[in-house]
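Is pyridoxal-5'-phosphate placement plausible here? Inputs below.
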Amino acid sequence: MNVNSGYERLAALNKAHVWHPFTQMKDYNGSDPLIVEKGEGVKLYDVNGRAYYDGFSSVWLNVHGHNVPELNRAIEEQLGRVAHSTLLGMANVPAIELAAELARIAPPGLTKVFYSDSGATGVEIAIKMAFQYWHNRGARKKRTFVTMNQAYHGDTIGAVSVGAIPLYHEVFRPMLFPARVIPYPYAYRHEGGAAGAMEETLERLRDLLETKADEIAALIVEPIVQGAAGMIVMPPGCLREIAAICKRHDVLLIADEVATGFGRTGRMFACDLEGVSPDLMVVGKGLTGGYLPVAATLATDEVYDAFYADYEEQKTFFHGHSFTGNPLGCAVALASLKLMEERRVVESVGSKAGFVDRKLHALAETRHVGEIRQQGLMVGIELVRDQATKEPYDWAERIGVRVCARARELGMLTRPLGNVVVFIPPLASTEAELGEMADILVQSVRDVTEGRSG
Ligand SMILES: *Cc1c(COP(=O)(O)O)cnc(C)c1O
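Reply from A.M.:
I modeled the complex. Tokens:
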């Protein structure tokens, strides 16, 4: 290997000073760190010059690939004007243009855009808006949130309060506000299959709202695909029914489209798959094409109007962040949306998804593949010890970690979710690139689960 002389130094500094997210540093520090130097198209290159496919879109963000001339230019042009100015009491050009564009492409009714800088802050904003919406309208008992089993909405305290992944969230329980949890329909492990899982979810929601709707502010959901839970795909019709039940009982619907937004599921937003218009919608990740940290919480006029009053009425939404509406981020988001339209990126996802589905069919007969779940270009492969009984691998075997380590050896980066191997390629990937990535994925799963490697 052509070892960069700088590698040893960077690796030592990394070990000495960088605390990585979602990482047991004791494990990490015992391994050779991958240090990225540059990206080009759907590949990342480490400081030693080795290329890797970005098989998880740098944790579900990337849309057009890396180092895209059009996106770079949008940032450079904005940089020549102003890098940042605040949105507190004043505006800037790209933030206005982007808000109008988001309102145009969002599900009908979402006309107002509140900016922040990450999915988690976008979720905090949605939660606080929903809470204060009812407060401002005088329905002060409506203050409880409903979330779904295994939900992930980010890592700030409000977002963790509506999170339901015990491994991440349980330790913080004493500092969280309580939320009501209903099951997310997980067909693979439900004895009634897809229909049974969906019915249980809807029944639990109906039961809860029939008795407690006057205490419930909102339900928050990852529409169509529950990402961090392991790429769990809802049975068709479920989201539409959830939305209808919420509406019937005067409970706001918050759609967390941070992972699913911007074409990932085959439509611009996952809500579009079922014609659902939520009251609040959170976007992040792919909004800037995966370039810069910008998120947004979209709201309906009805939500906005509950805050719109004479100052003395004290209905103002007192929330904001230093970098809210950052012009560089908004400029690159606009450029990304323009490219998506010019290149018909969303329209291309369906056929690319079909291609990936056919490639991954090679895994269906593999002994330790329990289920391959896919919606658009979001794929999760659930590995099991025994296909017939669905017996899971023990977490201590770290089967997902080992498969992803093998994929890295073979030239593709991804990260597992427990025993689920994730494949979320950049939407711009060509069929040739998707084919090579899928081949690596298939080989990694086989090599590790059939004991040939890892
Ligand atoms: C990633 C994610 C978040 C959190 O976004 P950050 O930008 O990491 O704070 C929230 N919700 C969902 C569904 C996500 O996938």
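Short version: The longest strand covers residues 378-386.
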